[in-house]
Amino acid sequence: MRRPLRLPATPRLPSLRKRLIVQLIALSAGLAVVLYVAVRLGAERASEATLDGLLGAATSTIAEELRSVEGGAELDLSPGTFSMLAAMGEERIFHRIDINGLPVTGYDDLPRPPQEPTALEPVFYDADYRDAELRLVAVARSLMIENRAAPVLVIVGQTRDGQRAVAQALANRAALIGLMVFLIAIPFSLLVARAFLRPVGRLAEAVGRRGGHDLRPVRHPAPAELMPLVEQLNAFIARLRQTLSQTETFIAEAAHHIRTPLATLRSEAEMALRQAGDEPTRARLRGMIRATEESARSANQLLDHATVLFRAEQFTQERVDIGAMIAALADRFRPTADLKDMEIRLDLPSERLETTGDAVLIEAAVRNLIDNAVKYSPEESEVAITLTRDGTFARLTLRDHGRGLGGETLATLSRRFRRGPNVGGVIGSGLGLTIVLETAAAMGGRLELTEHEEGGTCATLWFPLSS
Amino acid sequence: MRHALVSPVILILTLLLGTLPALAFEIEDQHSFGPPEATNRLSILSTTDIAFFAPLAEAFLARNPDLAVHYVQASSQSVQQAIGTEEAAFDLVISTAMDLQMKLANDGFAQGLPADVVQSLPSWARWRDRLVSIALEPVVLLLADAAIPEGREPPRSRRDLIALMRDHPDLFEGRIGTYDPRTSGAGYLFLTQDARTSDTIWRLAEVMGRLNARLYCCSSQMIEGLISGDLVMAYNVLGSYASANLPPDAAVHVVTLQDFTVTLQRTALVPANAPRGDLGASFLRFLLSDRGQQIQADAVGQGVMRPESFVNQPWLRPIRLDPGLLSTLDSMTRRRFLSEWAAAMEQP
After folding, report:
1. Is residue B172 located within the same domain as residue B205?
2. Which of A75, A92, A104 has its CB closest to that of B106?
3. CB–CB of B330 and A77 under 8 A?
């Protein structure tokens, strides 16, 4: 069965929208983390530099408070210096003063600096002391003691718990801000992704809205990034249009090239038949005429079938008045029926039943049904054509008193070029039912063939009614 | 009063001491409260007199009948030696020598106190979570009626005091008492705080030295001297001792000098090696509770101060509880200060 608009499933990649959202959220999460780390390190460095400056200054002050007196050195430590050092976060303070390399006051076991400071530059260092991590500074100076220059080393250390707590608090606040940015980024990226992908959706909608037969190039405005796609689509449409017009031309040409010589051949043969008196020759000519007729019919049906396929792909949509079409077709078959003294009885509803589809296709389908009924019916019989409404469908029934289906089913009969076993002597190509079935499929309709108990066939065709 | 209580106790304790583990630091007194068979024993090392402490211990034990309290009294220097050098096992250390307590805490001999104890205190009443203030006490001047001549107002400032002593050397000769800063931790703290605030102290020291001032280790002995009439003046006495130990009828003025009056914080810490730090903390919690504060206030009259006092008595000068206290403990600074003080006291 043919489903003209149903395409095979294309492999799907994750949606652009999802990818965009995930990337935006990942980016803002990354930024939040970077913010936290940057503030944490920045705050730590800045406060460490500040506190180092303070520690250095305080230590230099202490070093300057050392005075040389008779018999040694004298120191008057000012409480303010220590108070200041401890002010931020209640730090612990340790000090040590060495003169001539020997500790003279403070904590004798306070760690010494890794290298000796000079008068120009103090040495800052870290050390563990009494279960605490200390930041220490060592300042060097010289003092005249007993008329000799004595090197003096002043070491002051402090804990940095308060500084760490402040840096941690700052970093936590930054992390909070980062988290908020991250949370705000989620709805924001949803909005951005939607706005960003709107042109794609609009383009797809614009292309989807087009009719099946609309082969004009796409002129919908599209962002620069989508232009290559639109251009390729237009190029593809142009190629398709060209191929289709070639096919159409080919069908028309083929019809012309086959029908015309066949018509000529037939008229020549008929003329010959009229002139010939010799009975064997006449018999041969009659056989020839019948073969020509059969060829012409086959060619017509082949072309019909090609047309059906072609038009089914095109899927033209127009409203068709089924009743009027049936009446017109019945009229066209009446001369043929009269030759066999057959009657075509029409039973059409008073209401107008319309279906939506390709008028050419529908006409081909109905014509083939009537043709079959007339063709396979004996002389002086009746073909009844009934059209009724059946829910949302129009039901067309053709009842003949012909030879029936010969035990075959619809499935086998509708195969291309397949004819029933009981066709004997009747001209046919075996394409008629195929055309009817394909039309019904293209329109969303249905065909049913049943064999009547009293002989004859009943063909029922449903068309969806226009909504 | 103290002696009456202490003498028989000392006798027993001296005998007991032989059986106790040897304590190298010098103790002044000790006492056990509560049932002797109690397994939960809280040991407290303090500079506070047992008489002053007893009501607090009894109120605490009334609430915790399964506990016993062992109380050891020592000088502030001995407290420093016991905890900072010998690492003696106590659960709570209370001292008036803020600087020495600060040094213990700074040097890592104090353990962190439970958050509920620390957080209830204002920032001026604690240092980190290691050292907390349990009382505010002014350091006062005690002046006997006999030292104030007829028709003269009691001195309001150190300048008034110097003038009074210069005008009446006969009244004061050999009858002035003050701390010996070389032996008393609290005395050294008060003196350095005086010197930090004003240079008047050096002139005062000169005048006191000229009048042959006597030097004491403890507030209580100066108060005894005043009561007995040996002394007419005691400079830098803890207000709480004065209020607690002076009889109501004693003819002694308690003067808070209005040029400035140093106000100290009696501080407490739980040593890092405390065997029952939890008991120490719970006793501390009791001291800071309304009930504990009330008992302390009752014991000393107006000696314990409320923070509001600093509003209506602007001359009260609190000693800040911060490592600035450590500077005067520096051995060179201390040596220099003491030699300067000695020079002022002992003129030719």
Report:
1. yes
2. A92
3. yes
Helix/strand/coil for B322: coil
Nearest-CA distance A106 → chain B (Å): 6
The runs of H, that is alpha helices, within A276-321 are: 279-314
Together in a domain, B149 and B77: no
Convert A108-139 to b/e letters by CB count within 10 Å (16 or more is b). eebbbbeeebeeeebbbbebebeebebbbbbb
A105 contacts B330? CB cut-off 8 A: yes
Task: Tell me, yes or no, whether B251 and B106 share the same domain.
Answer: no
Q: Tokens 């081909």 correspond to what residue?
A: A364
Interface size between A and B, measured as CB pairs under 8 A: 64
Instruction: Indicate which CATH number applies to the domain containing A410.
Output: 3.30.565.10
Assembly ipTM? 0.80
Total domains in chain A come to: 1
Question: Number of folded domains in chain B?
Answer: 2
Report the CATH number that the domain containing residue B144 is assigned in CATH: 3.40.190.10
Q: Which of A66, A67, A75 to mutate to test the interface with B (most CBs of B within 10 A)?
A: A75
- B105 with B193, same domain? no
**Each residue's pLDDT expressed in tens, for chain A with a length of 467 residues:** 444 445 566 777 878 788 888 888 888 888 888 888 888 888 888 888 988 998 999 999 999 888 888 878 888 888 888 888 887 667 899 999 999 989 999 999 999 999 999 888 899 999 999 888 999 999 999 988 888 889 999 999 999 888 888 888 888 888 888 888 888 888 888 888 888 888 888 888 888 887 666 777 888 888 888 889 889 989 998 898 888 778 877 877 887 788 788 888 888 888 888 888 888 988 888 888 888 887 887 777 777 777 776 676 666 778 888 889 899 888 888 888 888 888 889 898 888 888 888 888 888 888 888 888 888 888 888 889 999 998 888 999 988 888 777 777 777 776 666 666 666 656 565 677 888 888 888 788 888 888 877 778 888 999 888 87
Q: Which residues of A touch B107 (CB under 8 A)?
A: 130
Q: Which residue of B has its CA nearest to A81?
A: B324
User: Which of chain B's residues have a Cβ under 8 Å away from the Cβ of A90?
Assistant: 127-128, 322
List CB contacts of A264: < 8 A, sequence separation 6 or more: none
Q: Is the CB of A145 inside 8 Å of chain B's CB atoms?
A: no
Q: Side-chain half-sphere of B289: how many Cα atoms within 13 Å?
A: 12
Give the domain extent around B41. Answer: 2-136+266-308
| Domain encompassing residue A455 | 316-467
CA–CA gap between residue A100 and residue A117 (Å, rounded) = 14
Contact at CB, B325 and A79, closer than 8 angstroms: yes
Judged by a CB distance cut-off of 8 A, whether residue A83 touches chain B is: yes
Task: Find where tokens 């988290």 sit.
Answer: A179
Residue of A54, A98, A105 for testing the chain B interface, max B β-carbons within 10 Å: A105
User: Do B108 and A131 make contact, defined as CB atoms within 8 angstroms?
Assistant: yes
Cα-based angle B93, B94, B96 (whole degrees, multiple of 5): 140
From the list B293, B137, B149, the residue with the least C-alpha distance to B219 is B137
User: What whole-number distance in Å separates Cα of residue B55 and Cα of residue B64?
Assistant: 14
Search chain B and give the residue with CA nearest A105.
B331
Say if the Cβ atoms of A91 and B196 lie within 8 Å. Answer: no
Interface touch B196/A95, C-beta < 8 Å: no
